[in-house]
Amino acid sequence: MTGAFIDRAAPNGVPLFLRRWLAHPLRMGSVVPSSATLCKHMVRRGWPEGDGVVLELGAGTGVISRAFLDAGLPADRLVTLEIDPNLADHLRGTLRGVEVLECDARKLVEYLPERFQGRVETVICGIPLVLLPLAEQQRFVAAIAAVAPGRGFLLFSYCVTSPLPAGKLGLTAKREVWTPMNLPPASVWRYMPV
Q: Does pTM top 0.90 for this prediction?
């Protein structure tokens, strides 16, 4: 039973995050959830205009999504995606009113509910894309372009240089911020279609 892994006493989900990292270390981008500092940077750089929707890919325990909600984003304008069933259960239990998709981000077009189509303004990514081969990175970028055409995406990464070969993916890359207080230190990269 997947719900047995939810630790309601730890809303940040650190114990769950560590268990899931031990089970699938290459699927997780870090050994601990993102810091409050990194979350604030993601909210600042990813805040949607008007009634746009924020889509978080690889939401983990939901600390970035929670930061958007705490900053005032209505729950019905936030969609999270998580491939790990235990983490998806945690998100459903802690992010009330938020749409939680349990799937692979490369299949986003198949899973995004119709009511969100054409409304995705910001895509936040915590998936360790640097570990994927180029063909899979291309599938990922195509999936984002299909649900948020022309919008690009924000990716946080622990790489010093661009974690993606932007030119080969038809993107431009800009490092927007570095957060040395995150564990490990992280950069926020904005990737936009050329």
A: no
